[in-house]
Amino acid sequence: MNWLNEYIQFYRDNSKGDLIKDKCIFPNQQLDLKSLNYLRYDDDIEEVFKDLADYALNVENTNDKYRHVLLHRSISGYEKHNPLTLNEVYKYIKEDVFDKSSGNIRDVISKHAISIIKRSEDSESQETKLYGFVKTVFGDSIPKIAYVDQSTGFNWGFAQEYYLKKLCKTIAESVNLAGLKELSDGFVDYTDKDLIEWVDSLIEFLHSYKSKKYWTIITDSDNGYGIWLNQNSDFCRFQDIRKDENIPNELIELVANNKHVAFDYKEQLYNLDAAYTSYLETNPVTIEEVGEYLDEKIEK
Predict the structure, then answer these.
(1) Which run of H or E residues covers position 13?
(2) Are 176 and 233 a contacting pair, CB within 8 Å?
(3) CA nearest neighbour of 36 among 64, 8, 7, 1
(4) Single pTM value for the model
(5) How far apart are CA 8 and CA 197, in angstroms?
């Protein structure tokens, strides 16, 4: 390949490049020889992004999108020859395929995209944390992390949103802590307290990540997913959960078990082991409210 590069360079340097540009002597990235007019310069696009484009073209990754038309990296001197940029690859993946597709294609593109992470000295970057949440729940269906050094022109937002929504929807549909534990082998050694802490960490992540860009995924009154734990360890929607304002458990049990009342406040009270009561926007449940409700029912 070095010899071929020197051969092509000789013709170019001696102003005879036009004599060979139509000849099939230029190797593409599949090592097939093509004419220069057939090829494009590779603007330092990392291989995993080309792989992602292949998945967008075919979810089984059996077809090639770009490598057959990209000049082999070992051939120098053609940086201005119709360069393919990462941003163009991104637009193909996002605008031409993802936005116009549904179901499995979106899922495949997104899970491979969130597995591509910008190399950083910080091993606990926000994107790595996002990957960790998704990997814990969906296990081996999520590819291993591929780190990249060059990512200018690629925007992960569409894939991050897709998988955060899928993650929260899956948690909400697990119904309760017991259901969450059964979702994945990643939770096999978790106690209930561990699970609550894990859900808390996801809530805190959504609250802080990208200035709360995805916070509405779990708080929107119409489309938000309920991952807020009540005192029965069931998942509830954001608008249906309320802070427990130090109500004695005996009083809650009395209201629930009295046949004339039979109201379970635990269904709407935020789990006492959960951390982020400050994020709630509903009015807290007070002793006075419970007492008044109990009196009203008994008087009837």
Answers:
(1) helix 2-13
(2) yes
(3) 8
(4) 0.92
(5) 61
